[in-house]
């Protein structure tokens, strides 16, 4: 019996990212805070595809912490606090809507459900939808 050397490990195709890195078009399950916030800004205005719960909730927490810090440091009554807080809110408006739509896609719903935000109780319904686990129906929103 002859000993053969083990086969070489599989190699990455040319132009592919690091081994194990998920493409931006796929939801990143169990994302770390850093990864989730990076994806939040990389997919600034991407309304198609899906987003995992961690991809949605970490940036949400980040925005809350930054807004709270702005309020504590500059004060909510001051002109500077209002301007800086308003500019930050405008800066994250589009990516917040985009990640919200992608999160709804992951639960099998259309991003248009975010229009509920305009009603009094709509935010409660949206928070429940955003907190739900992914569904197989969300596969129809996958981006190739």
Automatic annotation (TrEMBL):
Ranges that cross the membrane: 56-74, 80-100, 112-132
Keywords for the protein's UniProt record, in alphabetical order: Membrane, Transmembrane, Transmembrane helix
GO CC, alphabetical: plasma membrane
Coiled-coil residues: none
Superkingdom of the source species: Bacteria
PANTHER family registered for this protein in UniProt: INNER MEMBRANE PROTEIN YHAH-RELATED (PTHR34980:SF2), INNER MEMBRANE PROTEIN-RELATED-RELATED (PTHR34980)
This protein's name: Uncharacterized membrane protein YhaH (DUF805 family)
Annotated organism of origin: Nocardioides panzhihuensis
Phylogenetic placement of the source organism: Bacteria, Bacillati, Actinomycetota, Actinomycetes, Propionibacteriales
């Amino acid at each position: 019996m002859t000993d053969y050397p083990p086969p070489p490990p599989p190699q990455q195709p040319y132009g592919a990212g690091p081994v194990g890195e998920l493409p931006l078009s796929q939801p990143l399950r169990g994302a770390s805070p850093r990864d989730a916030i990076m994806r939040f800004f990389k997919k600034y205005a991407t309304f198609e595809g899906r987003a995992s719960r961690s991809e949605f909730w970490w940036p949400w927490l980040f925005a809350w912490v930054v807004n709270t810090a702005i309020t504590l440091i500059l004060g909510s009554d001051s002109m500077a606090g209002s301007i800086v807080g308003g500019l930050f809110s405008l800066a994250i408006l589009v990516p917040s809507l985009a990640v919200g739509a992608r999160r709804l896609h992951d639960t099998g719903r259309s991003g248009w459900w975010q229009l509920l935000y305009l009603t009094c109780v709509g935010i409660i319904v949206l928070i429940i939808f955003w907190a739900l686990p992914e569904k197989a129906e969300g596969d129809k929103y996958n981006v190739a």
